[in-house]
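Our preliminary data section would be incomplete without showing what the modeling component actually yields. Below, a chain of 116 amino acids is followed by its predicted structure, encoded as tokens that our downstream tools consume directly.
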Amino acid sequence: MMDTVTFDLAELSDRYQSLIDLITREGLNNQTNYAVRVLDRGVKTIKDALNFKKEDAVIPVSTWQELYKDYKSMYPPHGGVTEYFIWRDNFEERVAANQRLSAIKEEISRIFCNHI
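Predicted structure:
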């Protein structure tokens, strides 16, 4: 059975990948390229942590801190993912797409709140 920390790391990796997929699908620019690189690095960090974790081992707090620091770097006061939104000409499609984006970001924040 998977412990909570391992489950949360696996869930965080899934959310990161969802965000990568969403941003990539919408088209990349300088700001989103940076975000995708940070998220991709996070997926690799999580994969490494999960591969080296033994049954009784604990994921170091430094791993969570590194992931959190990198993630927060995507949210400067202006620009970055802070001001990122998805545009659709159709209002309902735009709302639905941005709700999914917000849900992914909220899920990531919830996971970090449990460990930072």
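The radius of gyration is 15 Å. The mean pLDDT is 89. Preliminary results of this kind motivate Aim 1 of the renewal.
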